Amino acid sequence: MSTVYFPWQNREDKTRPAAIALWVTIYCRKSSVSVLSSNQSQSALNTNPIPMSISQEQTEGHRALLEIESRFNAKSHGVVIAIHGIQIHALAMFGDIFDQFPYPVIINAAILKLADWFRASNNVIKFHIYKVFKQADQHLIKVINVEESMRRILPVLNSNDPISRSLALRVLGCMSVIIADKVDVQHAILQRLEEASDRTEAEAVIWAADRFCAQSDKFSPTVFPTIEAKLKDPQLNVNIKLHLVQLFRHMHHNIAVARQAKRVCVNILENAEADQRLLLVALRTLSLLLSQALLDRKEQLDRLFNYAFDDTRKAICLSALDDLALLAKGDLSIDPSHIYRLLSLLNRETNSVALMERRYTCAQTLLKSYRQLVLYMMRETWRTESRDSFVLAMNICEERLLRAVEAKQFSLAISCARFLTIIFELALEHEDTKSLKFIRSLDKVSLEAVSDLQTIAIRLSKRIEEADITKLLDKSGKLSLQQARHIVKLQARLLLLLRGASCTESFRQNFEKMIASEDDVIISLLAPFLLAISINCYDMATWFPEMALQALESCPHRTKLYVSIIQLLLRTTGMRPKVKQELSTRILDELDRFGSWNEGRQTYTNNGWYMYIIASEAGCNGWHAIMQRILWNLSRMVQSEASKYWLSAVSLLGQAETSFNDEQQTQIYLDSLMDLQAFQSLVGSRRFQSWYIQLRMEMVSVTRRMNKLLSLIEADGEPTKQLSKNLQQCGMRFRELASRYDFIAQSFLGMDDATLLDLEVYKVCALVCEYAVRTFIRLSGSFFCVDPALIPLLNIANDRMVVDSDAAPTLQEICLTFMQTVITWEEEDRQNNSSYYHLCAQDIRQFTSRMLEQPLSIPRYFFDRQRSVNVQLTVDPALSDKHPIMLQEGQDLAINFEGFVNLSGKEAVKIEKAAIVCSVTEERTKHFSDKLGNQKNLADPHQSAEVMFLAIADIWLLLTDASSRPHCCCHPLHTMHALSIHILHAMAYFTFQNIFSKHHRLDPSPHLIVRPG
After folding, report:
1. DSSP reduced 3-state for 324
2. Whole-angstrom Cα distance, residue 496 to residue 490?
3. Side-chain half-sphere of 870: how many Cα atoms within 13 Å?
4. H helical segments located in 73-198
5. What whole-number distance in Å separates Cα of residue 421 and Cα of residue 112?
6. CB-CB contact of 896 with 987 (8 Å)
7. Per residue in 477-493, is it b (16+ CB within 10 Å) or e — as a string?
8. Residue 852 · residue 703 · CB < 8 Å
9. Among 300, 112, 834, 483, which residue's Cα sits nearest to residue 491?
């Protein structure tokens, strides 16, 4: 949902929604069909224009090419020289043509035309054509006439002009993705590499050879002897040698060539008279080569440690440390001896701050990469070997950290703190009962290790607290706000690991420091720190609310401090419902003063935007009465109709969550959806908010219907056949709700981990309800399928894990406790126990009551600004009922899908391009050596084509609106030998969504635009 800017906000919305296009091109070949894909981005604001057909777009593309050609060939008047600015301008237009019309036929025609102009033009025009080729790297895979394009550029290599030859070599290097295995091109590059004497041409041919080595595993053995001979030439310029050595990093395809390349690099390193720049390049190249070739890695690790220990040259030591981090990732040759050498290296003193920082950075990478090895050392060898090395290294690091803070060397201080925090996290991490993944680590560390490291952690935490970073931020100009945030963030991570009175004590001290500070920079530094550690403060609900309310009374005019205190107060957990209700009333009274409530106009007159921030924070933490009251009053202030509908919709959602009347609550949910629909009609579709509210409404409705049925069973003592049938329908509804929650989690780009966890919680709740209902009503000997998402929860429930009863239980813990209860039902004799059904029904009703009493925590993604994303699917060549693709006997069909996927990590959300090859006919996917050239993920569906197509057709009919549902008739492939246009679209949608979602989260669903041919 895009954040609505209200009239009191003086901001410009510079965010433009984006569009994603999925282009699928199909070519039939004997025994295989290759499918080419590309993407196109275009602006899409509130309305989606009706797309043109493929043939119309191709016509427009050809017309645009003709216009560019006419401009390029235009004659100049009164100009003597042959360089025309209009020609360069025409060449600059090709980038837009490639992005706007990414069809193979358009790309092919454009590349052929550029190759013609390259052959016949002067060097200036050649240079600008080379720039076009370099920018169009991703589109070159769609060129159809590869041989013809290549033949038009190769003759330029016979020119007498070295500049022309250099530009031709660079163009061929750009085309390496499609011509890397062409023998004549490889021969031409090899010839120029041997004969080039001009530095410009030598650099160009080395660059082209580098591109060919990266793409072809056949070129490396051919070019290696020439490179080796040139490196032995003492007259060759050292800069050329640097570029030549870098070619070795691609020679990992052939083990024999890799060994020869390694031998050359080692000889360079052992040459005492070699230039230092050449040593650096050879060391890095050798590390890159061995990281791919899986050859003699332990030897290289020892070599890098030796350089880091013994070499006196700072640049060599820095490079060796970087290579250690590079080579050690995922390597199996690391053993405890390397960890001991690393700790010994950290203990050595050096006058270079940069070198010390790099050592600790390298150590962080190694410790994170080899978590299991470090845990093994802390568990098995702590008493005998590991303790002295780790404790000594950590004590020295602690002293360096504090000295660095005193000397205002804050980058080194951050590196030291990160190193210590990583070790503490490995040793002191607790089993996370809050996480829905319910993963229990089998790797434990010894009690002695925990005790020793905890002592160091407590001491370090106190010393960092005493250093008082906020004072350094005030008085020192060397400590930037970003560096201070890094240190404070690491301090918060350290306190969260200790999980004792340290968090509570630190929270009290820093909260008092924050409210006493007059500097907004200090407040912005301490507020996130307090929010982070507040979750581990002991019994915070008993003492913090009064402290926060007193602070609020003294700072109504300091908006930043006021909002920070309110956020801390709203995130306070563990309150009883009655206490929370009384506190809500007091908070609303304070907010009326903060917003300057006008009783006559019944609106706020001040701080409107901050009131909206507070309301959204209240909704995210389950204070729905506060959210409802604020947003309802704000809706009377806004002038924008869209803002009014948005505020009203979210306000009604909060009202529904505070309502306890079944019929009234459902109607309020429906009113909220109606206002949200009106909001969408003005600003564009916001599917996440609509789907989220709808699923919440259905979840509450099904749960209450099930409770009514269970109350009847409690009264009768045993379920009738009709009641059992109705309960079974409720179970099916819960399974459907779980699948829809999972579908939402995979249907939007940029979703954060907290939102995904929230959706996963309600998915598991629905599955637990379904499992309980089916266990309750099933007859002896019957069987039902358990959703795989419940298997980890069942395993933990079988282990009889005890949930901490001191803290307020979370929804996950409530589910876990109830699953343990459901498992005990299996041990009951339902035939002889007359109270079995009564007790089980009572258990289910208690669980659902506790589940509904848990306040809904609206995800922050609900309030975030979201780009409008369109997924446009195009099939080329255009398919129709009149012109189907005929699959003859012996032919196979495979489709390569390319699109954008969501890679959600701990630090940031990445949206990257990915591809997958799917076989959709009876023959399994084998090896594809088509023009796509890149390594792909292969999917081999186990269903036959007939079953596959029928299943896809059913899914397509379910996912398509009834009003726009296409007439879809599917017949077995072996009888029709044709693909219907609708079936292909459905297959693309189904495959792209489901296959990608196994590894990534994908957004194909909210705005699917099927573009028929």
Report:
1. helix
2. 10
3. 25
4. 85-92, 94-100, 104-120, 123-135, 146-153, 162-174, 176-179, 183-195
5. 58
6. no
7. eebeeebbbbbbbbbbb
8. yes
9. 483
Enumerate residues 6+ apart whose C-beta is below 8 A from 175.
133, 140, 149, 150, 153
Tokens of 675: 């206002």
Q: SS3 of 1010, please?
A: strand
Share the mean pLDDT of the chain: 76
Q: How confident is the model at residue 136 (pLDDT cuts 50, 70, 90)?
A: confident
Amino acid, single-letter form, for residue 610: Y
Q: Is the dihedral of CA 674, 676, 682, 688 positive or negative?
A: negative
What local confidence, expressed as pLDDT, does residue 263 receive? 94
Calculate the alpha carbon distances from 519 to 465, 471, 487, 558, 775 in Å.
19, 11, 19, 10, 60
Q: What number is the average pLDDT over the span 702-715? A: 87
Six token digits for residue 836: 């079995």
pLDDT-derived band at 991 (thresholds 50, 70, 90) equals: very low
| Two tokens, residue 311 | 């070499």
Is pLDDT at 439 greater than 70 in this prediction?
no
CA distances from 417 to 21, 74, 359, 398, 741 (A): 45, 66, 13, 8, 40
Model pLDDT for residues 168-202, shown as the tens digit of each residue: 999 999 999 899 889 999 999 999 999 988 899 99
> Among the ranges 80-89, 488-497, 622-631, which has the highest mean pLDDT value?
622-631
- Cβ atoms of residues 854 and 814 within 8 Å: yes
Structure tokens at 919: 């076989």
The tokens 């084509």 sit on which residue? 945
pLDDT of residue 897: 62
Q: What angle do CA 371, 375, 377 make, to 5 degrees?
A: 120
- Measured CA to CA, the distance from residue 207 to residue 201 in angstroms comes to 10
CB 897 within 8 A of CB 37: yes
**Distance separating alpha carbons of residues 350 and 740, to the nearest angstrom:** 58
- Which is it for strands 894-904 and 909-919: parallel, antiparallel or unpaired? antiparallel
Rounded distance between C-alpha atoms, residue 998 and residue 1000, angstroms:
6
Residue 629 has pLDDT above 70, yes or no: yes
Task: Return the structure tokens found at 729.
Answer: 């329908």
So what's the pLDDT on residue 869?
55
Does pLDDT of 229 surpass 60? yes
| Pairwise CA distance, residues 999 & 300, whole Å | 33
Both tokens of 255, joined, read 């083990």
CA dist 630 and 951 (Å) reads 49
Task: Tell me the average pLDDT across 687-697.
Answer: 91
Taking alpha carbons only, the member of 577, 570, 576 closest to residue 531 is 570
CA dihedral 186, 187, 189, 190 (to 10 degrees): 110
Omega prior to 877 cis, within 30 of 0: yes
Three state DSSP letters for 936-991: CEEECCCCCHHHHHHHHHHHHHHHCCCCCCCCCCCCCHHHHCECCHHHHHHHHHHH
pLDDT reading at 207 higher than 80: yes
- Edge-to-edge strands of the sheet including 32-38? 32-38, 20-29, 871-876, 1008-1011
Torsion of CA 709, 818, 763, 434, to 10 degrees: 150
What is the Cα–Cα distance from 279 to 320, expressed in whole angstroms? Answer: 11
pLDDT of 720 reads 81
| pLDDT band at 648; cut points 50, 70, 90 | very high
According to the model, what pLDDT value does residue 572 have?
A: 84
Mean pLDDT of 243-251: 93
- Kindly provide the b/e burial profile for residues 514-534, where b requires at least 16 CB atoms within 10 angstroms of the residue's own CB: bbebeeeebbebbbebbebbb
Length of the chain: 1013
Q: What residues contact 975, with CB distance under 8 A and at least 6 apart?
A: none
